[in-house]
Amino acid sequence: MSTGLAVVVLGAAGGIGRHVVTEALRAGHRVTATARHPDRLPNPDLPAEQTARLTVTRADVRDTASLETAMAGHDVVVSAVGPPGRHARGLYSDGARATVAAMDRCGVDRFLGVTSAGVRYDDPELAPWYRLLVRPLLRELYADMIAMEDLITASDLDWTLVRPVLLLDRDPTDLYRVADAATPPRGRSVTRADVARFIVAELHERRWTRRHPTIA
């Protein structure tokens, strides 16, 4: 079995974040799960020897000091932060600034973050109805995601930016497909659990360093 890493999960109470926590524990990693409201984090349905490697802590992705506290002594940061609705209000870009600063101060240089396939407006696999009807409604959200990506890619971090298509709350399939900076052909949806499995696999595989894997 591979040697476990010390992993910080930002946004661990969210749909993808909670799956990342569970899959990382199953894979043998030590996990620090962070959220603004740690009491909202679900308890992973895992054996005691796995949950013993879990630490839950409060951190605000916009607050560099709280992020430093959470990140100290870790190997990698996974960011699965996201707003509850369709307005980002600077969450992605503000969070990226604070995250990069905290990682620099803590000496952590590996970052895996989640944005969306929708950030690439010219993606030929983006359905016309989505481009014309849905994307305008999410213009502010996608603009903030793009700002986050720009901040991360301009940094010195060892980064991977995961771009899922339409997210579903279903069981993992392990049938997902991945392409670099483009949606796989006819890729319309993916489960949050599959996105988490891809992220946790990438912790050791490191196949997508400084790339934009789009998953469907």
TrEMBL record:
Q: Which InterPro entries match?
A: NAD(P)-bd_dom, NAD(P)-bd_dom_sf
SUPFAM superfamilies of this UniProt entry? NAD(P)-binding Rossmann-fold domains (SSF51735)
Please give one Pfam family short name. Answer: NAD_binding_10
Question: What superkingdom does the record give?
Answer: Bacteria
According to the entry, every stretch annotated as the NAD(P)-binding domain falls at: 11-205
Listed PANTHER family: FLAVIN REDUCTASE-RELATED, UPF0659 PROTEIN YMR090W
Record-given protein name: Putative NADH-flavin reductase
Originating species: Actinomycetospora corticicola
Which taxonomic lineage does the organism of this UniProt entry have?
Bacteria, Bacillati, Actinomycetota, Actinomycetes, Pseudonocardiales
